[in-house]
Write a structure and sequence with these properties.
single chain, 385 residues, alpha/beta, 7-stranded mixed beta sheet, 3-stranded antiparallel beta sheet
């Protein structure tokens, strides 16, 4: 494995005065990718007519093809949109759910997804059922058992997370999608954490809908989500924003969802080059190991524990450790204080009366980053009794 660590900080646009242990919320980006985005923006500002009328269509097609190849997805069914929210909204618009329709989701879904379904229920009366998962349920065998019990009851569609955002947990998504096929239920996979975290094959997973962000772990600056749509839904599908390309085919409709910044989409090919240059396997291995070792070090400093205690259970570059204080209001206050006073953000969540933090690992991290973050929190606790 090549030597990752702090020497790679120089390749990223990171404030030199900050310590980063939370790559996963927004992403941090290589300087070469930031420059590529700004170069495209400058071209738009300098020669907008030439860029929009002569160049961008071909560039977007190439980006789509490169992204589809990287994720083993049919490129004609692979599109770019601004974020997962846009994809979810387009799906809900497409199906035009009624009162008698039944939607399944879970307490592990990202809040945006849950809120959209709650809004649909209030607006239309569509039946929505939430599976209530506990942290103790987080093992693949139990998760599959629970999903099968619900799917047997008959649902039109189920909304799934590839990786549960908090706590970080990799779901057995391929097997869940297979259960959806077995029980004739449409599968929607939110893989916001996906590109750059796993070696993905959309063909192998074979969902009905799949969305993954290139801007979290895929090194693309700005908002950029790949949206896979199964071919059986392509014909009558439309983006959530209906623009001037309506009716010209889905590729043209997604090419121009109104006048918005699409320069991030054009950076995808360069981001893929970055991952291939440094080795996707090597990146994944380093990120997973440094995240686990870093979270473990924080738990040792705090004299607490990890949520998933065995290293083999932590298959991601995001790991949860318990804070040494349990008051949820105080926990949030102190983590904000860490950012204000020490330029380090520690992602926080309360569960069953305990405060947990989710830390992440990236190729620019070393163990001392996590030691610093853990000790900063202890200082803040001492300073705010």
């Amino acid at each position: 494995m090549q030597q990752f660590g702090h020497r790679f900080r120089e390749e990223f646009e990171i404030d030199p005065n900050s310590t980063v242990v939370n790559h996963c919320s927004f992403g941090y980006f290589p300087k070469t990718l930031v420059k590529a985005k700004f170069d495209y923006m400058l071209k738009i500002y300098q020669t907008p007519e030439k860029f929009f009328f002569n160049e961008i269509s071909q560039l977007l097609v190439q980006s789509r093809k490169d992204a589809a190849d990287f994720l083993d997805s049919p490129w004609e069914q692979t599109f770019f949109t601004t974020n997962v929210t846009s994809g979810i909204t387009a799906i809900l618009n497409y199906f035009n759910f009624k009162k008698d329709d039944k939607i399944l989701y879970s307490s592990l879904n990202y809040p945006m997804v849950q809120n959209n379904l709650i809004h649909l229920n209030k607006k239309v009366g569509t039946q929505i059922t939430q599976i209530q998962f506990q942290y103790d349920d987080l093992n693949d065998e139990k998760i599959l058992q629970i999903y099968e019990e619900y799917l047997k009851e008959g649902y039109n569609i189920v909304f799934l997370d590839l990786i549960v955002y908090n706590p970080a947990y990799l779901m057995p998504i391929k097997q869940i999608v297979q259960l959806c096929r077995k029980y004739n239920c449409i599968s929607v996979v939110d893989a916001a954490h996906g590109v750059g975290v796993l070696e993905l094959s959309i063909r192998d997973l074979d969902p009905d809908f799949f969305m993954t962000n290139f801007n979290k772990w895929g090194y693309v600056p700005g908002t950029c989500t790949l949206f896979y749509i199964n071919e059986k839904f392509i014909l009558d599908f439309h983006p959530h924003l209906i623009g001037s390309n309506y009716g010209l085919g889905l590729d043209k409709e997604y090419e121009f969802e109104g006048n918005q910044d699409r320069t991030s989409y054009l950076c995808v090919s360069k981001a893929i080059e970055f991952m291939k240059q440094h080795g996707l396997k090597e990146i994944i291995e380093y990120n997973n190991n440094i995240a686990y070792d870093g979270a473990k070090k924080m738990a040792e400093i705090w004299n607490t524990e990890l949520l998933l205690k065995n290293k083999q259970d932590n298959k991601l570059p995001m790991v949860s450790a318990r804070l040494p204080i349990d008051d949820p209001q105080l926990g949030l206050k102190l983590t904000k204080k860490c950012l204000q006073d020490y330029n380090v953000w520690i992602n926080f969540r309360n569960y069953k009366g305990q405060n947990w933090v989710r830390v992440s690992g990236q190729i620019y991290n070393e163990l001392q980053d996590y030691e610093y973050a853990a000790n900063c929190l202890l200082k803040v606790i001492q300073e705010n009794p």
